[in-house]
Design goal:
CATH architecture: Alpha-Beta Complex
Strand content: 25-35%
Number of domains: 1
Distance between the termini: 34 Å
CATH class: Alpha Beta
Strand order of the largest sheet: 5-4-1-6-12-8-13
CATH superfamily: Spore Coat Polysaccharide Biosynthesis Protein SpsA, Chain A
Structural class: alpha/beta
Length: 223
């Protein structure tokens, strides 16, 4: 199943402090490799495309870094649209429905997360989110996000953490009037009509959202 993929790379990365004063968060390195390159490695190892990267904060650095990669850029320089608004803005570039989206501020150890979702996707789903048990998580602040019922549907609960990778039917985005909004607004609408599903990632995952997460990610990778 070949679907387009959007990589979210527009955020300001304020929790990274000094590390993002002069570079965008996706350019922060873990074990010598920028986070955006780690996300692209996962994407290009699977059957996805086109790959769209959104840009806002210090976007020219990302544009230059990825100049030789087979990606398309969705420019949000004028207004940061958050994840939901950014995805809707990029729909003309993605070109088909449903789509993958992937955050770029995480490191993985285990099977390719994109492949896991490809294997679990079914046409009756409106969205399929990759979640992980908290004992397999490093670097994540706060409670969990979801839990699954017996049919694999997601509901809000602290048991599992959303890993930042999903397949979503983007039709729901047309029902949200605000120009700037989080994916949470779309998920809540989908969940209310029983279309929000989850798949469990059985590897390890590190949320690289603050400087303290970098050594945790490197330890997880055993480097």
């Amino acid at each position: 199943m070949t679907l387009p993929l959007m990589l979210f790379a527009a955020g300001k990365g304020t929790r990274m402090g000094a590390l993002t004063q002069s570079r965008p968060k996706p350019m922060v390195e873990v074990a010598g490799k920028p986070l955006i390159d780690r996300a692209l490695d996962l994407a290009t190892a699977t059957d996805v495309g086109p790959i769209v990267v959104n840009l806002h904060y210090l976007g020219d650095q990302l544009r230059a870094h990825l100049a030789d990669c087979n990606v398309v850029f969705s420019d949000e320089t004028d207004l940061l649209l958050e994840t939901g608004g950014g995805l809707r803005h990029a729909l003309p570039l993605l070109g088909s429905n449903p789509v993958f989206t992937m955050n770029t501020d995480a490191v993985w150890r285990g099977p390719n997360p994109i492949t896991i979702l490809q294997d679990h996707w079914r046409p009756e789903m409106e969205a399929l989110l990759l979640v992980i048990r908290k004992e397999n998580v490093a670097g994540h602040l706060g409670a969990g996000d979801f839990d699954l019922d017996a049919q694999g549907r997601l509901h809000r609960a602290p048991e599992m953490v959303y890993t930042g990778v999903q397949i979503i039917n983007t039709d729901v985005l047309a029902d949200i009037p605000e120009p700037t909004f989080s994916m949470n607004a779309a998920w809540d609408m989908i969940a209310a009509r029983g279309g929000l599903y989850g798949a469990i990632y059985d590897g390890q995952w590190c949320d690289v959202g603050q400087p303290e997460s970098i050594p945790l990610a490197e330890a997880m990778l055993h480097v």
